[in-house]
Amino acid sequence: MRSSNPVFSRRGFSRDNGYAGFNTAPQAGGAAVGTQGNPYAQGNPYASGNPYAQNPYAQNPYAQQTQYGAPPQAPATTGRMTMDDVVMRSAMTLGTVAVGAILAWALLPVSSTSYGLAIGSALVAFVLAMVQSFKRTPSPALILGYAAFEGVFLGVLSEMYNAQWHGAPFQAVLGTMAVSGATLLVYKAGWIRVTARYARIGMAIAIAFVVVMAVNLLLVAFGAAPDGGLRSMGPLGALVGIIAILLGAFFLTLDFKQIEDGIAYGAPREEAWLAAFGLTMTLVWIYVEMLRLVAIFSSND
């Protein structure tokens, strides 16, 4: 079953209790095998000991069949996902986030009203993301709607941070770009290999992090953790922020593997929307954490 948390929902590992998207395609020039079976990989493909046992898109009409030991070849049919599709859909979703943020910054002055609007937009974005996460097929309307409301939230949030720490949003954008670029470089160099074990360990850490942050939020709300608790503006808050950014980089590697698998195995073109959706959520995560980290370091100067 796919995760109900949109942050943790990735096509690569949310396959009916299995990890079909990991180790099914070469990360650095390895081999792949296409086999018939459930495209959502019922069961664990690693049970047989063969790391190339499952093609997560094997029943896809656009999927290919490859020989063992041979790299996947592009099928002659049209309608499969390409890197251009991923880039275009990602540009549309991220562009929608950017437009929403710019409009919110320009039209909503910092006030309690705009703060309430930001919270409302964040909740709507979360609901839309949850709905999309439960769907087995991508909905461009839901994804773009999520991006628009997320953009409003980020615009108001960025304006508030900029009012107190001038230039923080710009530094956060640069930081997000740096983390994303470095993660992509490390991934393409093969220094990180996205395997089922890697995903399990990373997901365990991520879930534990979210649970701890939820408990911390409750403690802060009831006054049991003054000054934000683990999310304070001091060294502890900075450490937590760094851990959160590292988790964001982890999610990026899952996104990159999802895209790589989709292209290698001839996923249908609409899967590019899911790739863009995952990338957008991850980049938003990193940006928000980077914004807080910049504010912490600026406050301690």
Q: How would you characterize this protein structure?
A:
The chain has 301 residues and is an all-alpha fold. 59% of the residues lie in helices and 0% in strands. It is built from 7 helices and no strands. Helix 6 runs antiparallel to helix 7. It is globular. The termini are far apart. Residues 1-20, 28-53 and 59-70 have low confidence and may be disordered.
Largest sheet: none
DSSP helix fraction: 55-70%
How many H/I helical runs? 7
What is the H-and-E element order? HHHHHHH
Large-scale geometry:
globular
Strand tally is: 0
Mean pLDDT: 79
Cα-to-Cα separation, first versus last residue? 47 Å
Q: What is the gyration radius calculated from CA atoms?
A: 20 Å
Low-confidence stretches: 1-20, 28-53, 59-70
How would you classify the helix and strand content by structural class? Answer: mainly alpha
Strand content: under 5%
Q: How are the SSEs ordered, and which strands pair?
A:
Elements: H1 83-107, H2 112-134, H3 140-164, H4 168-188, H5 196-221, H6 235-264, H7 271-299
Helix pairs in contact: 1-3, 1-7, 2-3, 3-7, 4-6, 4-7, 5-6, 6-7
Which features does this protein show?
single chain; 301 residues; mainly alpha; 59% helix; disordered N terminus
